[in-house]
Write a structure and sequence with these properties.
Helix content: 25-40%
Number of helices: 6
Number of domains: 2
Number of strands: 14
Distance between the termini: 23 Å
Largest sheet: 8 strands, antiparallel
Shape: globular
């Protein structure tokens, strides 16, 4: 069974009149990535992690016929410069850019229609959510800048509505709320105040909003309506940090909620599924993850 994490990849117009790239644009983005990586093993294309490890796309398979998705594998690997004798210190093997002693592979699937990528972890070796966000920007940003000059690339991890709801259901009061939101591609699943605010941002050409609310000594009993709307948007399009007081065992204690600490995480069992059947399971989980982020069932 593999745990899957989900990231919203967006190409956002720098002005409203440039419009959205749509399914075709997101498909093209990964086609160009595949072409860019063709016949190269240079480590310069790989994202550096800690402890001399790197992360990169190992394979990229765009599939267009009625599917509109891209799938493949990601690889985490180390770089070996040389292997020496433990006793003598003499070099036993001299490595190059393509030399590695440890490799870990992870399935991914990018749905071009929802522009959400699912990344699976069945080895407990997957990099952190923040590292994965940085990796996707590192891998796609140059291609996006060159081929979509009127758009800007954003990557945001989908986070759980349940975790945010738990804060509001159990908070005694709020000291400080910080929320950052990047306006989105049109999302039919948004509604009410959230949808109205998101529409206004887009129509005014606003690409991002940072909002802070701070209570007096006694704290706020609740955030403003606009702050709550931004927090709901941030689950899919941003990030937030909430300093609040919570009643724990009849004691009021200070707590900090960080939205990125609560990513949507869905376990998918492969079982006897074929490769195509397994990819369909992952595709279905993307809709489920989207629902979890925006507060659906």
């Amino acid at each position: 069974m593999a745990s899957h994490y989900y990231f919203n990849i967006e190409l956002l117009p720098i002005k409203p009149e440039y419009g959205f790239v749509g399914t075709d644009g997101y498909f093209k983005l990964f086609e160009l990535l595949k072409e860019n990586r063709k016949d190269t093993t240079s480590i310069d294309y790989s994202f550096p992690l800690q402890s001399d490890f790197y992360f990169d796309f190992d394979s990229i398979h765009p599939e267009r016929i009625s599917k509109d998705h891209v799938y493949g594998k990601l690889m985490k690997f180390d770089k070996v410069d040389a292997v020496v004798s433990r006793k003598s210190g003499e070099i036993q093997f001299q490595g190059d850019d393509d030399s590695s002693s440890k490799r870990y592979f992870f399935d991914y699937l990018f749905d071009c229609r929802s522009h959400i990528i699912a990344i699976g972890d069945n080895s407990q070796k997957l990099p952190s959510v923040s590292n994965l966000e940085d990796f996707l920007i590192f891998s796609l940003n140059t291609i996006a800048n060159h081929n979509f000059p009127n758009h800007v690339l954003k990557v945001i991890c989908l986070t759980s509505s349940d975790a945010l709801n738990d804060v509001f259901e159990n908070a005694h009061s709020f000291n400080r709320i910080e929320v950052n939101v990047t306006f989105s591609n049109p999302d039919k699943m948004l509604a009410g105040v959230i949808k109205d605010y998101e529409n206004e941002m887009r129509e005014q050409g606003i690409i991002s909003v940072s909002h802070v609310e701070k209570g007096a000594n006694g704290g706020m009993t609740s955030p403003s309506t606009i702050c709550r709307a931004l927090l709901d948007l941030a689950k899919k399009f941003g990030d937030a940090r909430i300093n609040y007081l919570r009643n724990i065992d009849d004691n009021i204690k200070r707590r900090i909620f960080r939205m990125k600490d609560h990513p949507v995480n869905i376990d998918i069992r492969r079982g006897n599924s074929s490769d195509e059947q397994y990819r369909e399971k992952i595709r279905a989980s993307i809709d489920q993850a989207n629902n979890q982020a925006i507060g659906g069932d």
